[in-house]
Amino acid sequence: MVLDLIPVGQLPLGSFLSGAPTIPIADFDTPPNYYRPKFRYWLPDASVPIDEVVQDIHAIADVGCGGVEFLPFFNYGNGPVVTDWSIYGFGTEAFKDVLRAALNASAADGLLFDFALGPNQGQGVPSEPETPGLGYQLVYSSTVVNAGETFNGLVPTASASFNTQGLEGWMHLPQDWGEKNSLAAVVAAEVVRKEGLDPDENIVVLNQTSVVDLTSLVRNGTLEWTPPPASGEYRLFAFYERYTNAKNAISVPEANTTIGNGSWFVDHFSATGAKKITDFWDQHLLDDAEVKRLLREVGEYSWEDSLEMIATLWWTQGFAERFEKSRGYSITPCLPVLYHIWCAWHDLTPYEVTYIYDTGEYGNTTTCTQDYREVLNEGYQEYLTHLEQWAQSLGLNHSSQPAYNLPLDMAAAVPFMGAPELESLAFFENIDRYRQFMGAAHLAGSEVISTEVGAISIGAYAFSVPELLRMLKGSFAVGVNTLVLHGYAYSGNYPGTTWPGLTTFEYRFTDMWGPRMPAWRHLNDSLLYAARNSLVGKLGVPKVDLAFYIDVHYYEDIDFYPGPDLTSAGYSHEYLGFANLAWPEAIVSDGLLAPDGPAYKALVVYDQTYITPEASSALVRFAQGGLPIFIVGSAPSVTVGAAGQAEVTKNMEELSSYPSVHTIPLSDFGPGILAQFNVTPRAAVLSFAGGGPESMFIAWRSDKASGVDTAYMWNNGFDSVFTVRFTPPIGSTPWILDAWTGKQSPLAAYDADDSGITIDVSLRNGQTKIFAFTRTASVATTRVVSYSSNIETVQYNSAGQVEALVYSDGVAATVHLSNGSRVTFLEKKELEDITVGPWDLTIESYVPLEDLSDAKGQIVTLPTQHLPTLVPWVQIEGMQNVSGVGTYVAHISIPLAAAPSQSSYAVLLSLGRVSNTIRAWVNERPVPPLDTSNAVADISDLVTAGRNEVRVEVSSTLFNAVKARIGSLHTNGEVPWDSEHYTDVPYAGYGLVGPVEVQFLRRVVIHH
User: How far is CA 435 from the centre of its chain?
Assistant: First the structure.
């Protein structure tokens, strides 16, 4: 069928809607606070005026956030500048007053309230030194005993040691003082050889069979011992248990009270350490009835940051006894080889020499370190369990960034808290590394999966909102559904601090959100966008196509599955460790792993080595249940630790006998193999036009209660149109959900059959879209299946009719309908697109007051500039160091044919690249919030025939203004740590850069 392209009003209209549709998701337009992002709020100390803290919390509420994460920062634990922390430190009466005020302000604004369990990162509290529950470690000293010699004397004394490379200035080291040292063991072993790997690392290989435990021979600290005859050089080791005596927040010198003396890292490997924290809260903060009541009223989570603490070798009181009970043998012969990168903080070994045993790959070094970490994990899980139980007793839950940084199994720790949290910084914003965390969280059924997002080491005030949004989008793409933004710093005056105010981490990390930032006045648009995505991310449960088994014992900064082929085909995947496979949630039914949770369609064992007996038994159980299992490359065949090899061998041999288990060479594995065995993605990428799909990610969720499935899509690659087949339940109806405007619309163009629903999805670089699939009857009796590229979109109009928006490119436009017919519109070119301009620009410049110590600064309106063409501010004379908000005004003439009364044209305003934030008005009427990845809006209802005013506000970061003054700025009495972030970087090019265009698209109702 061919139609002339004539005004809509002259067409015989055909309605395609069978009835008024019901929106898929309630509250999507205005999500409650539970779904909105929170700000981490940095309190410098309790000396600040309480009314300033209250104003900050009101500002967080006013901008559209849902809560605060209250973090007593205390200069990152590094000590005060002027204020007396024995009076204003964590846990003091002054601190309790600030905490109470913050809680009251949050209650008044309806905000949720999370709180750090201690100062700095929440990893310690005030305490008497060297008391049970504080951080504990095992240290050693060694000496050489040559063949034919006798050692006779005091066993070597030991001191704490640590490789501090890269940690200076932000990590508090263990201290050597203290009286409570306890000799744990004395061991000797023969030296086989010495290896120098590089100038900074030495390895000494020990004869594992020569190890001898001499502890029982020690008398009053002395030992007499002679090595066996005909032996070589021996090393004699003396191991001591002692407190780390490390603080997570220091205080003033010679403080005369326990609380005023700062806070100490607690033991994270026992319930005793957790109880040290909760006892402090119960006795010194929650003894205030109002504070306790308010926490019950508005509190959501107690919280602890990532584990940024060190020890020579992590230990806890009674560790040796715990080890023997858990692993079935004494830890004593293992002690020399535990000071290894596998047991250290971020692979930093404490001593200059690393010892290993000589048999096998690393001999029993591997066995010893694996079993050590397993027992350390057990203690850490006790620690987390106590914190979660304590939080629940207050009507809250606990949130933590679990395990990573230390030699702990992150994936095993996830279920021990109400809200497991990862972070963009430590995971390098890397999707594959996020997957190491998400698999465990999804399998455990974690309803809330949080991220600390927005920290990046580029210098404060340099972070743009589009870059922040890119981080959020990547988090949503893997299933994160709760956001804590990094961060909002106390905004008032503070000693040793200049404009623009308290800047945490001495200007190293982003960012200091708040009214000091020009973007603040527009930030609500982005926060609402994030909240709507979070709401979708908490609907029902996640569904993930593939689980990969990985044998890691702790989080590693590597990508486990190489290549983008699975993502390009539409598969979603994540990782599970050996502990996860043995969880009770890991059951198989109907050929799916965890059918009521992520419902993995297959398990891929990708060239792994180690597996526990429990995990190998689980694999057999999965195969018996019919789960497709792909053994790719080498199958894991070595037990973890000393026990269970026979069971692992038996199970792995049995596994290969089941018909659902497929052994595949590494070079052959990929989407083709999976499809060959009928393992297909829930959202298959069938084709694309433009950039490839290797950077396009899809997150699927399913909610049985509401009968809605959702698919979140994010394109982190080049602009493209992806043809995707979605597989919701047969008979589902697709919707498009706009997270920027809150609008939910039934989809007018798609194909559907028993294999799924196929949609052409156009995504610009960085753009996201959300599709919802409802179980309700289709809203359409006939629909468009596909359309030509010179049609911008096909949609339902306000009258319930399907209309096409057609470009005037001189070529006929075509749509294909589900009834098999084709409709072609002949082109009648009439209206030319408009390039908007010239512009008048007025900038509100954010600058300090004459008194630089006043944090608030001022906003100065600069003289209006007339711009014939749009250029960044740095290209305008005298504007290169300006930060602020620019208001652009221009006028356009709209032909009568495009006026709303005619309904013949859709009028689109395209604003070009968005460098930070943007808002627009037409004739003083607001344009709907703009997608920063595709800043195009339909302004058809805002224009009139004739002259129209277009007003656009854009913001910059504060970077240019800060860069111009960086040599004069201080925070906490210090200059910026990394001034090269400012001095070595050019001024940033902000402003409205365009091109700004008005496009006229013909509206054509499709009649069949």
Answer: 11
pLDDT digits (tens, 9 = 90+) for 418-446: 999 999 999 999 999 999 999 999 999 99
Among residues 641, 470, 474, 632, which one has the least CA distance to residue 560? 632
List of long-range contacts for 786-789, beta carbons under 8 Å, 24+ apart: 786/749, 786/751, 786/760, 786/815, 786/816, 787/749, 787/813, 787/814, 787/815, 787/816, 788/813, 788/814, 788/815
Task: Yes or no: say if 420 and 399 are a contact pair by the CB < 8 Å rule.
Answer: yes
Helix ranges (H only) for 666-779 are 671-676
Pairing of strands 397-400, 212-213: unpaired
Chain segment 3-28, per-residue pLDDT in tens: 433 333 333 334 445 555 689 999 99
Q: Output the 3-class SS for 652-674.
A: HHHHCCCCCEEEECHHHCCHHHH
- Chain centroid, CA 733 distance in Å: 32
Q: Tell me the sheet residues that pair with 925.
A: 922
In angstroms and rounded to an integer, the radius of gyration of the C-alpha atoms of the chain is 32
Q: How far apart are CA 288 and CA 226, in angstroms?
A: 63
Identify the top-confidence range among 247-261, 665-679, 828-842: 665-679
Kindly state the DSSP code that residue 570 receives in the 8-state scheme.
T
Q: Which residues contact 562 (CB under 8 A, 6 or more apart)?
A: none
Lowest average pLDDT, out of 35-39, 154-158, 835-839, 911-915, goes to 154-158
How far are the Cα atoms of 208, 320, 399, 400, 420 from residue 384, in angstroms, in the given order? 36, 21, 9, 9, 11
DSSP-based three-state secondary structure for 1003 = strand
Structural tokens at position 187 = 């061991």
Q: What is the DSSP string of 250-268?
A: ---TT-SSTGGG-EEEBPS
Taking the C-alpha atoms of residue 974 and residue 969, their distance in angstroms, rounded to an integer, is 9
Q: Is the pLDDT of residue 417 over 80?
A: yes
Which pLDDT score is estimated for 695?
A: 94
